TrEMBL record, chain A:
This is Carbon-phosphorus lyase complex subunit PhnI. GO terms for molecular function: lyase activity. It holds the Pfam family PhnI. Keywords: Lyase. It comes from Neoroseomonas terrae.
UniProtKB/TrEMBL annotation, chain B:
Keywords: ATP-binding, Lyase, Nucleotide-binding. The gene is phnK. InterPro entries: AAA+_ATPase, ABC_transporter-like_ATP-bd, ABC_transporter-like_CS, P-loop_NTPase, PhnK. The lineage of its organism: Bacteria, Pseudomonadati, Pseudomonadota, Alphaproteobacteria, Acetobacterales. It comes from the Bacteria. This is Phosphonate C-P lyase system protein PhnK. Residues 6-246 form the ABC transporter domain. SMART domains: AAA.
TrEMBL record, chain C:
Catalyzes the breakage of the C-P bond in alpha-D-ribose 1-methylphosphonate 5-phosphate (PRPn) forming alpha-D-ribose. It is an enzyme of class 4 (lyase). This is Alpha-D-ribose 1-methylphosphonate 5-phosphate C-P lyase. It comes from Neoroseomonas terrae. It catalyses: alpha-D-ribose 1-methylphosphonate 5-phosphate + AH2 + S-adenosyl-L-methionine = alpha-D-ribose 1,2-cyclic phosphate 5-phosphate + methane + 5'-deoxyadenosine + L-methionine + A + H(+). Keywords: 4Fe-4S, Iron, Iron-sulfur, Lyase, Metal-binding, S-adenosyl-L-methionine. It comes from the Bacteria. Belongs to the PhnJ family.
Length: 361, 252, 294
């Protein structure tokens, strides 16, 4: 005799206990510390901070540990935590020319004020598995240090803008929208689009950015500049009326230079795609800049023909917390609607069968 | 004399430096077929879009039965567009739902105005397919399986099913073969007479205008350079541009 | 004039507000709910928050429930009509942890019922509220995925397209093929998705004495049906709406007029049908046992 699926509560508890056990893995292997993740899985921490839209290396590392290394799950944990935090206000805008740079490269000029600073990068490494890393306890020699880069590092796009070759961004004193407080509405203005992209799924942004290079969106991008480093965040408490420094955060900024053929009202000039993300995330910042430029099609009066130019498509599907929830919800029971479909299908087949028999008679 | 259904005066519109409409006035009486002819870029399609409320002019008035079309809200204009007006696009793909059966395409306008009896909707769709010479067996087929001429006839059926008073047609025979064009023109002529329709048709085809229209307006660079009864304009053109248009057809 | 300040009820989970959401968020959601009640069936955008449960797993319903719940409420949570499905248990446990409210499996005892995919068989009363979890609030989304366009269609009440879809079903299949999430017209104005309840449940929405609230977290929309509002399933005069259910009796309580789940009992075609509303079924079984004993 059929017994209704009972004991769900016990099953859930047992499943979660098992999850904890598998997270720990073989007890003979030493447990990973949050500090180790934070220090040695730094790029994973950066990605979780970006997609979790919360800059806190310790919490991101903790989330990675709790999520067993599933970075989307970790970003979800961080997001769910951050929504419960009280909100004091918004920081002053970041002035990225004042960044403490670790890396700064331009693909448009061989040399330029501030110079090219390679920094800690995978670029030009040969992707050969390094079996020396498998041996623990090996000493890592300190990297040679050069004189720190000059203080004044102007933006490449600014150099172009002074010549009139780079379109100036529209300035506005209006308070930008806040995606974490107001729902997305369309048409979406650029600040809201950039917020959405800054925490969008890296794989999604990468694929879309890539598609613009392959003819889906007609982009002709150059990396004007990528900067990676640290920057002070300032906040003006209403009681004080002047900004105070809260601390430093790590960011990556990418400015893409794109061709623009001009319109009735504007002369031909370059236009900008912009990317700014938490932590060291060049791939993410570059992809974001490509997609940002794609999404400017409407305001630049370009034909909207490609997925990366379609703002409803891009902005509604970029968030991996939303996406993973909805894709994975298909695991939940759907037997009520499925039953309705079953009965419906049986009726339709019966109707068709009757019609066929009547036709045969 | 009866008041015209549609009456427009003083229409002006510029695209940047380019004048698209210059002091255009036009009216259409009940049951009248009016053709707007001119070469491409003369402003005739723009005029059609302004008259049908799809585009706002810089200045001027458009009145439908005395009502100001340009001051109407979008809801009222859409209601007008699915009841008293019809619009036949040059490309049938713009006027049809290609993923919906022929019957569904014809039925949509009926359902949009409240028809809720499946059998009646279907009967009406069948009768309209017959009127536009599409075989009843094709009622459940998708229009993408139809030839260009059939698609255009289906678009006409879909537009006329709610018995509009005025139909805007934008180069309805545009992309079709000459033999198919002739058949379609015959169909438009007989349906408009039978139903007492008013038609405002934009075309660059002088022969089509001669066959269908009671009156002709000739446009050039946004201006109406000549207008009058079809026979008069085509047989005795006054304006040099009209003379050129007419002679170029004869020469062809 | 005196102003009574009601302090928020204490939460049972350290560090979190009563019912998880902070009071400002609850106020924002309640404002959206009031708007939704004022315009029955119309979708109101709201600033949905990230919840500690995944999007698509009931975050919209949870936020609505959290905003209307008071300490004296009694909450019932069902998924697929049952109180004991894993997601229903998980959501019920969430509210026990963060709000400490009383919970029940009995529809009659609940003041708030949060549901996924079903409406209880027992008729709801005026003093009850039903909260639906909604995955996709836009009834037109399969016909038109763009929100900018569907918003216009709603504003103009331009719903011919939905009827075309039903026409196409009948033309091709002889029946309207929609079996769940069957679109309804609310108060003769707004086309609305009833959430993926089986079409069988649609008639229960019509003039329901209880307030019906709908929350879509991922899509960030709230909508509502006030008590006793007209809710009509779309159909044709000559192809009237049919509530679909399996043509069987419940193997446990014998009911012939409730919605049934089909259960496969072996791999030789064996199957039986049981009530999807577990509370209703258990009560019927208890009643008949009592009658038998008397």
């Amino acid at each position: 005799m059929y017994v209704a699926v009972k004991g769900g509560e016990r099953a859930i508890s047992a499943a979660h206990a098992w999850l904890d056990e598998t997270r720990r893995g073989d007890p003979a292997v030493p447990e990973l510390t949050v500090a180790q993740i934070e220090q040695q899985m730094g790029l994973a921490v950066d990605r979780v901070m970006a997609e979790g839209s919360c800059h806190d290396r310790f919490l991101a590392a903790l989330a990675i540990k709790q999520a067993k290394g599933d970075l989307i799950e970790a970003a979800f944990l961080l997001r769910a935590y951050r929504t419960t935090l009280p909100r004091f206000g918004a920081s002053e805008p970041l002035e990225t020319t004042a960044m403490r740079l670790r890396r700064r490269i331009s693909a448009t000029y061989k040399d330029l004020p501030g110079g090219q600073v390679l920094g800690p990068t995978f670029d030009y490494t040969h992707r050969l598995l390094d079996f020396a890393l498998a041996a623990e306890g090996s000493e890592c020699p300190a990297a040679p240090e050069a004189a720190s880069p000059v203080a004044d590092v102007p933006r490449v796009t600014e150099l172009l803008a002074r010549e009139g070759l780079m379109q100036r961004e529209a300035t506005s004193e209006a308070e930008p929208g806040d995606l974490t407080r107001q729902p997305l509405t369309f048409p979406a203005e650029r600040p809201v689009r950039l917020q959405n992209l800054a925490r969008g799924d890296e794989g999604f942004l990468l694929a879309l950015g890539y598609s613009t290079q392959r003819g889906y969106g007609n982009a002709h991008p150059f990396v004007g500049e990528i900067r990676v480093g640290h920057i002070a965040v300032e906040f003006t408490p209403p009681e004080l009326g002047f900004p105070i420094e809260l601390g430093e955060i790590g960011i990556t900024e990418c400015q893409m230079v794109n061709q623009f053929k001009g319109s009735r009202t504007e002369p031909a000039q370059f236009t900008r795609g912009y990317g700014l993300v938490f932590g060291h995330g060049e791939r993410r910042a570059m992809s974001m800049a490509l997609v940002d430029r794609g999404l400017r099609a409407r305001e630049l009066d370009e034909d909207i023909t490609a997925p990366a130019q379609d703002e409803e498509f891009v902005l509604y599907h970029s968030d991996n917390i939303e996406a993973t929830g909805f894709v994975e919800h298909l695991k939940l029971p759907h037997y009520v609607d499925f039953q309705s479909e079953l009965e419906n299908l049986r009726t339709i087949r019966r109707t068709a069968e009757q019609a066929r028999q009547e036709a045969a008679e | 004399m009866t008041t015209p259904l549609l009456k427009a005066t003083g229409l002006n519109l510029r695209f940047g430096a380019i004048p698209a409409l210059v002091d255009v006035a036009i009216d259409v009486a009940a049951g009248e077929v009016v053709a707007i002819v001119g070469e491409s870029g003369s402003g005739k399609t723009t005029l059609l879009r302004v008259l049908s409320g799809m585009m706002a002019p810089d200045a001027g008035d458009v009145l439908w039965l005395g009502q100001d079309v340009l001051a109407m809200g979008e809801a009222a204009r859409r209601r007008l567009m699915r009841t008293e007006w019809g619009y036949v696009h040059q490309n049938p793909r713009d006027g049809l739902r290609l993923g919906v059966s022929a019957g569904g395409n014809v039925g949509e306008r009926l359902m949009a105005v409240g028809a809720r009896h499946y059998g009646n909707i279907r009967a009406e769709a069948l009768s309209w397919l017959a009127k536009v010479e599409i075989d009843a067996s094709r009622i459940d087929d998708l229009p993408r399986t139809f030839s260009g001429g059939m698609q255009q006839r289906l678009q006409i059926a879909r537009t006329l099913v709610t018995h509009p008073k005025l139909v805007f047609m934008d180069e309805p025979t545009g992309g079709l073969d000459v033999s198919v064009q002739a058949r379609l023109l015959d169909l438009i002529r007989s349906l408009s007479r039978e139903l007492g329709l008013s038609v405002l048709i934009v075309t660059h085809d002088i022969a089509a205008a001669r066959l269908l229209a009671d009156r002709i307006l000739v446009m050039r660079r946004g201006q109406v350079v000549e207008q009058g009864l079809t026979d008069r304009v085509l047989d005795d053109p006054q304006h040099p541009y009209t003379q050129l248009l007419v002679s170029s057809v004869l020469a062809a | 004039m005196t102003i009574t300040v009601v302090p928020p009820a204490p939460s049972t989970l350290e560090g979190y507000n009563f019912a998880y959401l902070d009071e400002a968020t609850k106020r924002m959601i309640r404002r959206a709910l009031l708007k939704a009640v004022a315009i029955p069936g119309h979708q109101i955008p709201f600033g949905a928050r990230e919840m500690p449960l995944p999007y698509g797993w009931g975050t919209g319903g949870i936020q609505v429930t959290a905003s209307i719940l008071g300490p004296t409420d009694t909450l019932k949570v069902i998924d697929q009509g049952a109180d004991d499905t894993t997601n229903a248990i998980s959501i019920r446990r969430f509210f026990t942890r963060v709000a400490g409210v009383a919970t029940t499996e009995h529809t009659a005892e609940a003041t708030v019922v949060q549901t996924r995919h079903r409406i209880p068989e027992r008729t709801l009363r005026e003093d009850q509220i039903i909260v639906y979890q909604v995955p996709q609030p836009e009834p037109l989304f399969r016909l038109e995925p763009r929100r900018m366009e569907t918003k216009r269609l709603h504003a103009l009440a331009d719903y011919g397209l939905m009827h075309v879809r039903l026409y196409e079903d009948i033309a091709r299949l002889g029946h309207i093929a929609k079996a769940y999430d069957y679109p309804v017209m609310v108060n003769r104005r707004y086309l609305m998705s009833p959430s993926p309840i089986p079409a069988f449940d649609n008639p229960k929405m019509h003039r329901m004495p209880a307030l019906q609230l709908f929350g879509a977290g991922r899509e960030k929309r709230i909508y509502a049906i006030p008590p006793y509002t007209e809710v009509r399933s779309l159909d044709f005069e000559d192809h009237p709406f049919r509530p679909i259910r399996a043509p069987h009796a419940c193997a446990l309580c014998g009911s012939r007029d409730t919605y049934l789940d089909e259960v496969i009992t072996d791999d030789a075609g064996g199957r039986l049908f049981v009530c999807s509303d577990t509370d209703f079924c258990a009560e019927r079984q208890a009643d008949s046992a009592k009658e038998a004993a008397e």
